[in-house]
Structures
1.
Amino acid sequence: MSGLAHFLTLASDGMKANRLFWLLIAGFAFFPIFTHFADLPFWNDVAMRIMLLGMAAMGLNLVLGYGGMVSFGHAAFIGIGAYCVGIGDFYGLTNGWAHMLLGIVVCGLMGLVIGYLALRTSGIYFIMITLAFAQMLFFLFVSLEQFGGDDGMSIDRAEFGFIDLYNPLRLYFLIWVTLALVGLGLMFIVHSRFGVTLRAIKSNESRIEAMGLEPLQFKITGYVISAVICGLAGVLFANWQEYVSPDIMHWTRSGELMIIIILGGLGTLAGPLLGAIVFLLLEESLPIMLDSVAPAYAENWMILFGPLLIMVVMFGRGGLVGLLAAQRQSKNNPKRTKAGQ
Amino acid sequence: MSQPVLNLQKLNKSFGALKATSDLSMTVMPGEIHALIGPNGAGKTTLIQQIYGALKPDSGQVSLNGSEITKLSVPDRVRAGIGRSFQISNVLMDFTVMENGIIAEQARLGHSFRFLQPAFSDAVLIEGAKAILQRVGLEKRAEQRVGDLAHGERRMLELALALAASPSLLLLDEPMAGAGPEDSQRMAEIIEALRGKVAILLIEHDMDAVFRLADRLTVMVEGAVIAAGTVAEISANEAVKLAYLGGEE
């Protein structure tokens, strides 16, 4: 049997098992057609932001959802990826593929260092150490005056060979393809021997040790993979924004990523992307809705946003994906309602 | 006489002023069922922890099949041939019985850094997992979530996982604790069937089971061995009667 045929069978099996995620990906592919005919080009921009944050959240989900490691510093990797574009540009490196490669290598190395140090701890200490590393990097970039310091630096969209990113559709589809490939990769990883071991470590680390495996090796590897995915999102983020500043790695963004994952569904393939869609759509539409009802309060839309998020987390254990799955399964098989199997 | 599977030499371990293990030496021979008994607080679990590697002794040596393992980590010791069940069932609760077996099998094979092929539908792993489950008669429950299993079945599964890598020494920390008479009976049968195949160090409070199963016993009081020998020797030992068997009930 040829390797390619085998790969394709595996991929199509996986896609059937993760229908929701691939439906969302297909939706994003057709979305520009809709915005074109509805004459709503602004919404392409929103869709790109959703895909970028969704991608970063998918990266974090590998350690947070599947590995049970509550990293509160993943925005740092988005920032590093974005600064790979900015700083690369600054020194005359304008090729986008080179930026991507740089982002992957630098984020991989930073993930290795931070992971190696932080994963010696667990629980609240791990959360605090990852946050501390992210804050260190944040203030490092604030202090780097030659790269704009606090104000950041504006950048030209990179040259991706034949892909001219000033054509908004090409940027859109570069992001889309990357997102789909990240999803494909994660789909394989979480069901592979490595991914299964990572999930088992989350379930019971001491049993994995009792099987003769060293949990730290798997956790660090997962951490590096997730850092690289966030870095890729950062590289594209910088190109989309045409601008990079320390703001991109502010700690609130790490929190945002966690909220997106929990909202969508921890430890599921579709969860982070679905979470990003709902999170950013609410962020866009709540002020508008509030404006039409009570204009004086429009800028306080977060008063509604917060309780909404809390309700989903409290009543929909397993997030939106969990709610959807529970609804489907209550018809056929009431027993197994745990998402992400 | 053949080489002992486990050889402990002058182990010492203190927690502050408390001497949990005191100049303790003992051996476990190949294929024997060796029971470790003693009143609560005698330091049995602390000793098991030092053999397993979760605790490091302050001084002394732990040797497995003739090579020293005192400085090895838990996973290294497991790969060197130690299997273990814990006082509280230690299994992968979020997975099915079959999935537990599959993860044990892939750990045994030593190829867990693979990123493409789905593990739970891998024919090689499924075959291995079936063999692991069959040893304790759990193959019929393969599709059950471990969280839904009865206590006794979880105990069996843990034993199966501990046996998966064919250890040369099996540490069983109260395998019958909390089990009903039927489950205890089955557990005893399975342990009995392992006699001669793997060396077992057994901590158990059920004295009937201990006297039925054990080839040799070691009696611990306050971190030290006060007697060691066959069941007949131990039941006749005055010091043991005084310190433990008589004193408790």
2.
Amino acid sequence: MTRNFSAWPIYALLGILSAPLAVMYLFLVIDTFTNAPPGSLIPNEFTFHHWRFLWDASVTGDVWGPTATTFLFATTMVVIVLAVSSTAGYAISRLNLPFRRFFLSGIMVMHAFPSVTLIIGVFLVLQFAGLYNTLIGVILVKASLMLPFGVWIMKGFYDQVPWEIEMAGVQDGASRFTVWRRLILPQVTPGLLSLGIFAFIDGWSEFMLPRILAPSANFQVLSTYLNVVSDPNSTTYNFNLFKSVGLFYTLPILVLFAVFQNRLMNIFGGGTKG
Amino acid sequence: MRTRTSLLGLGFVSPALALLFAFFLMPVVLTTVFAFTNMSTATGITGGSHVITGNLLRDLGNAGIDNDVITALGEASFSVTSETLAAAADAGVEPRFLGEIEARLMGQNFEDARSFESALKSLPSRPTRIRELKLATEPFERSILNTRYASRADMEAAITSMAPDAPAETISTIAEASYTGWRWIDGGNFQTLLDRPETIRIVLNTVFYVAATLAFNVFVGLFLAITTFYLPKTGAGFFSVLWLLPRITPVVLYAVMWKWFTWDNGFLYVIAEQLGLPAFNYMKGSVPTAWATIILVNGFVGASFGMILFSGALRAIPIQQLWASEVDGASRWQQIRQIILPQLRWPILFVTSYQTLSLLSSYEQIWLTTNGGPGSTTTVWALEAFNTALNNYTGNLEYGMGAAMALILVAVGLVLSILYLRMFRFDELVNKPRIEF
């Protein structure tokens, strides 16, 4: 772009508009390491006191159990999403199926459809299936709700793989399955990686499903843990502590986002959050 | 030539089909079905049994059921059968005494406690103390009141045994009324919604919430996309990352940050106090500030959606058009008005319609921040449906009513998403943001 316009008015406007966000994220980090005198926002001492929940379970309860559960939850869900999306995506991209068009448009409608309105129906399904209040139930629901998006993305990746690769494989006598497994799948690994990271972040952040579908279960994920810990109506509320727990919870996501930012930027446009 | 169906293909799509069937199609079906029932915590989910309670008898009496029948049902009777004997043995009645009861009274019925007791008193090995005798009668008591019957036929049989003279029609009415599970109530839930005065309030809240947040999302998204387009790369990068952060921040932490921002002794509170402005809990303290909070909470997440899509569309505009306009002496405002905005018409329409749908159905952020308060001033339709069905701490969760409210959203969602599919040739649009590498 040409430089015959001055940039500072734009910076000023953007700065004002973004100020709340900047303040919130700045203090998210600052407040976890500092204390400020009452009635002031400027910190006057440096401390690790707010991070003691990591080794002292008496502060907010054990944090490592929920961390492990969250990891299990997110990775299992990623595995399901990747396995099901990579096969279904290949099938609707390359193989002959009855009702293929119908399936495709169904996936698209489900992708646009706000799945959160189904929560009452999902609750009833889990009740009937006996999976209410179980981790596996929540994982299955979360993975299924991600599927329309995952299948769609994977189909797009398969569409870009040249037919010639497949032709060559079939010509040499390999079965369609071997072709998919040995020739096509390696071509779409970048897509699997991006989808996997996206799904992992989504699963790591998930709050509604564990909270609603497993409210009295014997496991906790970090989102429900943080929600219980950070109740500002409690008598001893301390936002510095809440933010430390929250930052600890969010760190893996921030790291993944920083490393894979360019890949994720493009997927967000077709993403699921409004 | 017609090609053969690929077996591998069928195998490959079946896991996806199974999961989508179980967790997309079934929920839609169940929401639709149970919207027409009165299912709640009280009725249970998997069906109920048949019980006559004292309250039910009173209601039936008021409803004009024959009083003799009601009295007969309310009475207790005593009968000696193998079942009641077994129950008595379990209750610890002395075995010898039981043996005598079995030998002499087997198969007999007694209208009331007194006649049964006097029959027992005639037995040789009766307990000497009256209290023990009374305790021994209890297992033989057969009352229809508060007894659970698994099926309707059992209940009808029990009613017939208690009140043999009752006409069949009355028996069936009572058996019907004694059912504790959920039942079909046709459009009852929707009628209740129409009759409730709060409904109109919630609809207005929803319209206001969607309109205001949508306006924020689209205008801020546009503003961000256009300004970052004009800025040098580092500045633009900083702001787009900053605005993307709410999108990747887990919603619980995002809510905590907003609470800190607006709560007592939080950021705004302290600033307002130092400036001498009214300082209170802005999130929950007053209606206008509560509205401002939830619109901003959702707006700051939603704006980045517009920003990403608009930025992509902006980069697709041939740069020569902008150069030419600058040569002709166009101001930046003229550039935006005459060149950029007309070419963003379709992305703007897309963002507007897509976000209308997601805002209509989303309540996560509202739930975690104002939770519809103060009072129910910021309660929207989706939140109310969720609270009715799944999040009511006062006790009875009304699944049927919640499903009816959700069904309206599901219907709106389906119609709108199919409409968008047509309008935007969705396949192209959904294809575009494919991951690039």
